[in-house]
Design goal:
Family: Belongs to the auxin efflux carrier (TC 2.A.69) family.
Subcellular location: Cell membrane
CATH architecture: Up-down Bundle
Number of strands: 0
Number of helices: 13
Shape: globular
Pfam families: Mem_trans
Number of domains: 1
Largest sheet: none
Strand content: under 5%
Organism: Clostridium grantii DSM 8605
Structural class: mainly alpha
Distance between the termini: 19 Å
CATH topology: Na+/H+ antiporter like fold
CATH class: Mainly Alpha
Transmembrane segments: 6-24, 36-53, 65-86, 98-118, 124-152, 164-184, 224-245, 257-275, 287-309
Helix content: over 70%
Length: 310
């Protein structure tokens, strides 16, 4: 019950309050959502990635986490692709259908959730490091495969690749790797506080963007694909994660962290990408809202089971 209340009060309620404010703004003001999307992708997101990864100590023993995250992505990708074929989805819907499964909220939702689960444990630091590694993989997937999926629904392969290459987030990851390799402490430079300010602004701006998109969204409650995507993100993903954990012979802390981490709702980035490419943003927004609402129940169950199993 404490976990359920925490998820509602510390994750769901604040998220939906900001989304609500964005929705009011979208209804009362003439705001260009494409401009907001570009501000997110070209300023806030790369700053978030750069600062978060710079503050993370990458340990070699966490390589198993990287392998797990990529395998989870690969299996999820193939599964949604096959389901899309059986559902006879058009290219645009299938692209978003895949993104709503493979892109999950490992950052502003997953990180504080893992911190709560392990708050009284001596393994909190270890669990947090595991979650940051998941976040790093998710960022790479978002700005490569996520963009590629959304682009193919509207653009040619060449145009899609050109769009991906123009994203500063990929260069942010590369710069962090270079700075860490040469032991350069970027936090001593004047630019660091500016990047931190931008990092801190990502979540509210992204949620406001989602709210504005929702204010323009026509909800179709009969859309089976929305419910199917929700089921796959909240129910199928944890099952896949559990199978991988068992096969990879992980320690209890890593196993518990990754199972819970894999059960969080669809990332807001799925909507931002859909808006950026003008590729079924209504569908993506509906899945994000639905998974975020229902995860208060499914996550509570997953956390309860993880305490028993591991």
């Amino acid at each position: 019950m404490n976990i359920f209340i925490f998820i509602i009060t510390n994750n769901i309620a604040p998220i939906f309050f900001i989304i609500f404010l964005g929705s009011i703004l979208g209804k009362t003001q003439n705001i260009d959502i494409k401009t907001l999307s570009k501000i997110n992708f070209y300023l806030f997101v790369p700053s978030f990635i750069f600062v978060s990864l710079s503050e993370t100590n990458i340990d070699l023993k966490l390589v198993k986490v990287l392998l797990f995250a990529f395998l989870l992505f690969l299996i999820s990708y193939l599964l949604t692709f096959v389901v899309g074929i059986f559902r006879k989805q058009n290219k645009s819907i299938n692209a978003n259908f895949m993104n709503t499964m493979i892109l999950y909220n490992s950052g502003n939702f997953g990180v504080p959730l893992i911190a709560l689960v392990f708050k009284d444990s001596p393994y909190l630091g270890y669990a947090a490091a595991i979650q940051i590694m998941v976040l790093m993989v998710q960022n790479i997937i978002t700005y490569t495969v996520g963009f590629f999926n959304a682009g193919l629904g509207q653009l040619s392969i060449k145009e899609t690749l050109k769009k991906i290459i123009s994203m500063p987030s990929l260069y942010a990851i590369f710069l962090v790797i270079v700075f860490k390799y040469f032991h350069i402490n970027i936090s001593s430079f004047f630019i660091w506080p500016a990047l931190v300010y931008l990092r801190n602004g990502l979540v509210p701006i992204a949620l406001i963007t989602l709210g504005i998109q929702l204010s323009m969204t026509k909800f179709h409650f009969s859309n089976i694909d929305v419910y199917l995507a929700t089921f796959m993100r909240l129910c199928c993903a944890p099952v896949i994660a559990f199978i991988l954990i068992k096969f990879m012979n992980m320690d209890e802390v890593m196993a518990k962290t990754l199972l819970i981490s894999s059960s969080v709702p669809t990332a807001i980035n799925a909507v931002l990408i859909a808006v950026e490419f003008d590729n079924e943003p209504d569908f993506a927004a509906q899945v994000v809202i639905t998974t975020t609402l229902l995860c208060s129940v499914t996550l509570t169950i997953v956390i309860f089971l993880s305490n028993i199993i591991f």
